[in-house]
Amino acid sequence: MEDESGFPHVREVIMNLPTWARRLKTERLERCWSQKDVARRLTEAAYEHAGMSLPSRESLTRMLRDWEAGRARPRPPYPRLLALVFGLDESELFESLITPDSPVPVDVSVHDPFALNGRPADTDYVTMLRQTIQALVALDGAHGGNEVFPLSLRVFRIASAKLAAGNFTAGIERDLEAAAGEAGEVAAWMAYDADRHDASRQIIQEALMLSRLAGDRGMELFELAHLSMLSLYRHRPREALRIADDVLNDGGLPPRVAAIFDVRRGRALATMGDRPRGFDALRRARSALAESINTRDPYWTWWMDEAELAWHEGMAHAELGEWRQAVAPIAEAFVRRSIRGRSRYQYAAQLLNALVHAQAWREAEPIIVDVMEQAGEVGSARTANLLLRVADRIEHAGTSTTSTLADSAQDLRRMLACS
Q1: Which fold has domain 10-93?
Q2: Which pLDDT does position 117 carry in this prediction?
Q3: Are 391 and 413 in contact (CB under 8 A)?
C-alpha cells in the first residue's frame, strides 16, 4: 500500500523519528535518491558554494544514515549544505533542530501589548527612536550583532506595532514610518551578523514596506541593498543580480548608492562565473567611490569605503575559485581597518580563510593570532561559523600545514566554543 507521497509505507517507516530526521528521509525518498546520491550532491554543493572539501562519500553516507535514523544531528556546515542539496531554506528542513549554532527561532511578529495599549507615539518618541538606532549601530560596530540583535528587534517590533494599531498622535505618521523602517533595517543587519538569515529576510521585507509608505527612497535603497546582500549570502546570485539591476536601471542614483549596487552586481556575476562583467561592475563601483560623498548621497552610505570595496573585490576572486588573487585585496581591507571591532574581526577572519584556501600556511599564522585576540570581544555568529569552517580546513590539511597553525586552530575552536 502506498501513502499519498507515492512511496510504499514511508509514513510507517519514519513516523517515530525526530521531526528533522523524518524530513530529511522524506525529502530524499520523494526524489528517489539513495543515500549515496545525497552524499555525492553534498560534496558538489560544498565545493560549488563554499569551496569546501568534505570527508569521503562513504563517510558522508554513514553520517546521513545516522542523521536519518535520528542517532545524530547534523552540525554546521551540513544543515546549510543539505538545504542547498534539497533546494529548501534551512529553516524548512531543520525547523525543529535547535543547537548552539542554530538558536531558537525568533518571533518577529508584531503583538507587543505595550506597543498596542501604551502611551501613543509622539514627536519625542520618534526622536528617541532615532537616537536609539544610532546607539544600536555603535554597539554593533564595537561588539557585533549577537547580543545587540534581541534589543534591536524589540525596538523595531514596538515601533511597528504602534503604527499597525494607529497608536500615535496626529501628524507624525510619516515620520514614525520612516524611523520604524530605519529601525527595521538595523534589526535586519543585526540578525544577519548573528547568522539569523530567515529572521533578517522577514524583518527587512517589513522595513522595506514601511520605508515605501513613508516615501523614504533613500532608506528603501538601503533595504534593497540588504536584500541583495542576503541573496548573495544564501547562494542566490540570480536573485541578487535582479535586485541590483532593477535599481541601477532606474538611473539618477547618487554616486555611492550606485557603487553599492554595482558591488552587489559584481559579486553576483562573479558567483555565476561571469568574471569579465563581474569585475567591470566592481571597477565602476571604484570609479563612483572616487567621487566621494556629495550632497546627494544618503548618510548611510558612509560604510562603503576603500576597505569595504577591497574586501568585495577579494570575495569576487574567491567566488571564482581564485583564492591566491583573493588574498591581496582582502589583506588590504584588513590593514585599512586598524580600529578593533566587528569589521576588523570580520576582515581578519576572511583573510585567514583566503590564506588557508591558498595554502599560505606561514602567512596565516599571525592572522589567526589576531583573530583569537578578538574572538572573545566581538559576538558575531556569522564570523564565528566561518572561523569554525576554517579550523576544519586547517585540521583536514594534516601534515601539509604547519604545527603552529594546527595548534592555533585547535585553540581557536576552544575559544569559539566558550564565547
Answers
A1: 434 Repressor (Amino-terminal Domain) (1.10.260)
A2: 60
A3: yes
Buried b (16+ CB within 10 A) or exposed e, 364-399: bbebbebbbebbeebbbbbbbbbbbbbbbbbeebee
Q: Please indicate, yes or no, whether the overall pTM of this predicted structure exceeds 0.85.
A: no
Phi/psi of residue 55, nearest 5 degrees: -60, 175
Q: Are 347 and 382 in contact (CB under 8 A)?
A: no
Please, are residues 30 and 3 in contact by the beta-carbon 8 Å criterion?
A: no
Reduced to 3 states (helix: H, G, I; strand: E, B; else coil), residue 295 is coil
- Do 160 and 209 meet the contact criterion of CB atoms below 8 Å apart? no
Half-sphere exposure at residue 115, Cβ-oriented, CA atoms within 13 angstroms: 18
**Per-chain mean pLDDT for the chain:** 85
> How far apart, in whole angstroms, are the C-alpha atoms of residue 416 and residue 414?
5
For the chain, give every domain's residue range: 10-93, 108-215, 327-419
Q: How far apart are the C-alpha atoms of 161 and 336, rounded to whole Å?
A: 41
Instruction: Quickly state the pLDDT bin for 106 (edges 50, 70, 90).
Output: low
Long-range contacts of 197-204 (CB under 8 A, 24+ apart): 197/90, 197/230, 197/233, 197/234, 198/89, 198/90, 198/91, 198/105, 199/105, 199/106, 199/108, 199/153, 200/226, 200/230, 201/227, 201/230, 202/108, 203/108, 203/153, 203/156, 204/230
